[in-house]
């Protein structure tokens, strides 16, 4: 009876341990103004439980010389994160998403440079 109980206990615990190992939460950096690898404003963190939801967004402004000039980078968590370029008038926003490594969103995009 004791062995049966132990077996049930192990069966009950292992899937949980396994699941935790496969899909760990990812801690992401939150920042309103990220430049040269440093957060200048609004620093914090957020957690993504699943999916590539650590987000990095580079903001560019269209210059009079006809070029996209990098302005700043924002970091946060977003459930529906997709890598894309988004244009609103003379503003361009490039998004990047990552997961699986804590603060991975501070290693991508223009803000890291
Ligand atoms: C995440 O942010 C909270 C406050 O917002 C802070 O207390 C905590 O230490 C941070 N965790 C890490 C790992 O930076
Ligand atoms: C450009 O970056 C500055 C911070 O360096 C920010 O205050 C400003 O809102 C940004 N401009 C745009 C249009 O995002």
TrEMBL record:
Residues 27-106 form the UPAR/Ly6 domain. It comes from the Eukaryota. Residues 1-19 form the signal peptide. Coiled coil: none annotated. Keywords: Signal. This is UPAR/Ly6 domain-containing protein. It comes from Bos indicus x Bos taurus (Hybrid cattle). The lineage of its organism: Eukaryota, Metazoa, Chordata, Craniata, Vertebrata.
């Amino acid at each position: 009876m004791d062995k049966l109980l132990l077996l049930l206990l192990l069966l009950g615990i292992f899937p949980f341990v396994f699941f935790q190992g496969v899909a760990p939460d990812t801690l992401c950096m939150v920042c309103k103004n990220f430049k040269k690898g440093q957060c200048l404003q609004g620093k914090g963190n957020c957690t993504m439980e699943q999916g590539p939801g650590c987000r990095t967004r580079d903001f560019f402004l269209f210059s009079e010389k006809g070029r996209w000039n990098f302005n700043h980078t924002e970091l946060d968590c977003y459930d529906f994160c997709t890598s894309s370029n988004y244009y609103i008038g003379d503003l361009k926003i490039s998004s990047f998403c990552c997961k699986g490594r804590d603060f991975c969103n501070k290693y991508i995009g223009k803000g890291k440079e």
